[in-house]
Amino acid sequence: MLKFGSLMAVAAATLLLSSAANAQYKDEYTVSTVLPSAFPWGQAADKWVELVKERSEGRINMKIYSNSQLVSGDQTKEFSAMRSGLIDMAVGSTINWSPQVPELNLFSLPFLMPDNAAIDAITQGEAGKAVFKAIEKRGVTPLAWGENGFRELSNSKLAISEPSDLEGLKIRVVGSPLFQDTFTALGANPTQMSWADAKPALTTGAVDGQENPLSVFDVARIDQVGQEHLTLWHYMADPLVFAVSNRVWAQFSAEDQALLKQAAVDAGQWEIEKSRAELADTLQAIKDRGVTVTELTREQHDAFVNATLSVYKKWTPRIGEDLVKQAQAAVANRKQ
Ligand code: X2X
Q1: Per-residue pLDDT for 25 more than 80?
Q2: For residue 254, is pLDDT > 90?
Q3: Which of 40, 45, 183, 198 is in the most buried spot, having the most CB atoms within 10 Å?
Q4: Cα separation of 45 and 109, whole Å?
Q5: How far away, in angstroms, is 195 Cα from ligand 1 center?
Q6: The model scores a pTM over 0.85
Q7: pLDDT higher than 80, residue 18
Q8: Distance from C-alpha of 29 to C-alpha of 62, rounded to nearest angstrom
Q9: How far does the signal peptide extend, from start to end residue (predicted)?
Q10: What is the mean pLDDT of the chain?
């Protein structure tokens, strides 16, 4: 039996050890996002920070830097900055990280995921696990999924209901070269630019159109910069990933790693449910502002699918044949 004195010594040593471990913790961890708190994306990050603070009783503090400010507005640099330790954590879009993690282009394949059940079948299944492994292999620890949403097409010129309507239209596209290929296949004239540059370019008419989820169109008031036409084509959706730089991750105790992960899972689930539930009201608000909303018939939809098939041919080898097949099978077998 241990004497009281030795017990005290053990207790003191434990205290020392745990304070030594805590001493490695930063006073504050940086969390990068593109969109701030007015958007579901920013709210996902807010929720994560709040849950971690609460559950760690204030030991782990995170501060959000939105508008990609930690990478001077260039959202395609976020992943590299996290990998190199310049950014500790992020809630990032699969699109913005795909230049460094080619597997993430999976979600950008046009018309791969027809509905929410298809997104969930991929993220919550084997394909989702394989994508997380790909992220981890490149220096970042993924913890949970969130959602930016199905990206719909807007423009200032005409109601788009078939691929030929896009002929020659200048469309702002996001960070992965895959989007250049999709819009080129449709006959449009795509220009890649950051979110920071998108609204000014729409305002001056440097571009005619853009694609983003309804929540982004609504909150950023894209209708106010002449985007009068909106086509609901659901051609892709970008999940969000809650993640921590591997270097920072390794400094947390196993308990705190579990805490950070569970808080991310809970925040992600909360945000996905919330943003899906808000969608109908958001669409109504957009219509109420006088935006022409075009929905596609099955035939019109299929014309877009056929026009973009070449993207699969070029990008499947880059994403990984097995991963694409796995995702397609998950979608085909999804629960409705
Ligand atoms: O830049 C965009 O369009 C945005 C905000 O949706 C992303 O960061 C992918």
Answers
A1: yes
A2: yes
A3: 45
A4: 26
A5: 6
A6: yes
A7: no
A8: 4
A9: 1-23
A10: 94
